[in-house]
Amino acid sequence: MRPRYEVADVLRKAGKEFTEKYNPPRHVRKVISDITTCRSASKGGHQSSCSMCGKVQISYNSCRNRSCPKCEGHKQALWVDERGKELLPVPYFHLVFTLPHELNPLILKNRSQCLNILFQAVSETLLEVCNTKLEGLPGFFCILHTWGRTLSFHPHIHCVITGGVWDEEKTQFKTKSKKYLLPVNILSTVFRAKFIKKLKLLELAPDKPLLNQLYKNNWVVYAKPPFGGPSSVLKYLARYTHRIAISNSRITNITNDSVSFSYRDAKDGSKLKLCTLSHLEFTRRFLQHVPPKSFVRIRYYGFLAHAKRGKLLEKIKLNLKTKIIPKKQTLKTTTDFQEQKSKLSSCCKAPVKIQLLARISPTTFNPWNST
Predict the structure, then answer these.
(1) 3-state DSSP call for residue 234?
(2) Which residues, 6+ apart, have CB-to-CB distance to 328 below 8 Å?
(3) Following DSSP, what letter does each residue of 45-73 receive, concatenated?
(4) I need a surface site. Which of 12, 95, 117, 292 has the fewest CB within 10 A?
(5) What count of Cα atoms within 13 Å lies in the side-chain half-sphere of residue 283?
(6) Nearest CA to 278 among 14, 9, 4?
(7) SS3 call for 370
């Protein structure tokens, strides 16, 4: 069922004020426009009529913006399907690398550079420690999230990593213990050193007092319990991969002045609470999580890296005697129109007649007042 309240409702109320006050870059303005016009006449669509009773139903196209709460579902299903073919019969672990909140102002001013450094520091840390401790090459991918539960800025990376490594010299996959992968304190120390070093190389290092504080503090690397098996990995992927800062289902109320949404307070036993913000503040918090233009949020490393995946993954599967699934897509990306063509009418379960609807010109369509 369609949620009663949507992020689009808030952006229609505060999007114009936000652009005038903060003058966001062009790609953020496009996010506002796409979300507020998603599945509306502005995007065009099609009209379907039942061939038996003649009942007419109008469906508008989605915006397919990766920051839209109503889109990305099909891409997520396709991505999970592809990753499912790469799963191995070995334990999998979930690691989370988090940056200290003192770095938030620096990251917000240099978003692309700092987030790229974050990916580099995490990947190099895991590759180095795995090579030292396990003597081999792991396979893992990293997913960037930048939000906290109340839409605060909280950059961190989720990693799904194999519980074992590929030993190229022995052409053997060495499986690790099902309960333990790598020492978290070593990961934290190496991660901190690599991230700060990369900041210095790009001349982005903070002032000396803050730098000294960063060296003194322990950086958080959180190791979650290992997955129960390949099926639980896929459930995790479906929840975390193509997520955005907040889903429409979490918004509980929108008034003339404010918006309320639910969240779980980790500091208070994960109790369900409400956060209420003004329209403008909600819009600011939501849009600060729009990734930089063309920024890649999911990246692959080790034997899952694009340059190595083809040859090494096949070798590993043969070594583990895993069935190799042919490279054939079981899901296909489709347009809204193509999806509708294959459906029967909801009323009579009869074939439908499709008529395309033209887009309404931007000169006659105002996204700020759209319903």
Answers:
(1) helix
(2) none
(3) EEEEEETTT--EEEEEPP---TT-TTS-H
(4) 292
(5) 29
(6) 14
(7) coil
> What is the phi/psi pair of residue 57, to 5°?
-135, 130
Q: Is residue 351 part of a domain?
A: yes
Rounded-to-integer distance, Cα 159 and Cα 181, Å: 13
Distance from C-alpha of 39 to C-alpha of 340, rounded to nearest angstrom: 14
Number of structural domains in the chain: 2
Give me the count of residues in the chain: 371
Give residue 137's identity as a one-letter amino acid code.
L
Distance CA 280, CA 257 (A): 9
For position 323, what pLDDT does the model report? 58
Whether residue 285 is contained in a domain is answered as no
Q: What is the pTM of this model?
A: 0.87
Q: Helices in 24-133 by DSSP H: which ranges?
A: 26-37, 73-84, 104-109, 111-133
pLDDT tens for residues 81-105?
888 888 999 999 999 999 999 999 9
Do the Cβ atoms of 118 and 155 come closer than 8 Å?
yes
Q: Does residue 54 lie in a domain region?
A: yes
Q: How far apart are CA 49 and CA 56, in angstroms?
A: 4
For residue 191, give the nearest of 220, 148, 154, 212 by alpha carbon. Answer: 220
Tens-digit pLDDT profile for residues 318-341: 999 875 555 554 445 555 444 545
**Placement of tokens 């096949």 in the chain:** 314
What are the Cα distances from residue 351, in Å, to 102, 107, 168, 334? 59, 53, 56, 19
- The span from the CA of 112 to the CA of 144, in Å, is 12
The values of phi and psi at residue 161, to 5°, are -130, 145
- Say if residue 42 is in the same domain as residue 114: no
**Is residue 126's pLDDT more than 80?**
yes
Q: What is the dihedral of CA 109, 12, 258, 71, to 10 degrees?
A: -70
